[in-house]
Amino acid sequence: MSGSMATAEASGSDGKGQEVETSVTYYRLEEVAKRNSLKELWLVIHGRVYDVTRFLNEHPGGEEVLLEQAGVDASESFEDVGHSSDAREMLKQYYIGDIHPSDLKPESGSKDPSKNDTCKSCWAYWILPIIGAVLLGFLYRYYTSESKSS
Ligand code: HEM
What we know:
Blueprint: H1 8-11, E1 26-27, H2 29-34, E2 42-45, E3 48-51, H3 63-68, H4 75-81, H5 85-94, E4 95-99, H6 114-149
Parallel strand pairs: 1-4
Antiparallel strand pairs: 2-3, 3-4
The structure holds protoporphyrin IX containing FE.
Protoporphyrin IX containing FE is lined by residues 43, 50, 52, 55, 59-61, 65-66, 69, 74, 77-78, 81, 83-84, 86-87, 90-91, 94.
């Protein structure tokens, strides 16, 4: 009966109220994946989890498309449709938490720029052998033409 679970923002007025966002709930992908029915339907858009159960029959795009994305990452499909900013605003109502950081794909690339690095080195891997081959070609021609002329 201690009741000491009250949130800090309820009474705290000592100027430290900026950390409200720390109370984010994290869900694992496997938990979201279980909510894939008409009874309970969650989906993930850009690393955020949305409970769209009560939105199903309100969705202008139909409940079928939502069911197809049930329990999985729907970011791509959501973007492909080109949803309006109104639609994006609506997302907030259904937001229930974030995907656990260790389940996040390196999609947003801010933490893991290794994709760019690989691309850069890809380029180097391509260009170096080509430069080598061209140089060898020139050397070969230089030597063969020299031996012809003398
Ligand atoms: C919670 C997430 C979603 C919300 C709040 C939402 C909201 C909306 C809204 C408001 C519209 C009307 C058009 C607009 O304003 O852009 C719409 C249309 C549509 N949505 Fe969604 N949507 C969501 C998720 C999805 C997903 C995951 C798909 C998967 C493919 C999808 C497919 C569509 C389609 C195909 C239309 C077009 C309907 C038409 O043009 O006739 N939506 N959605």
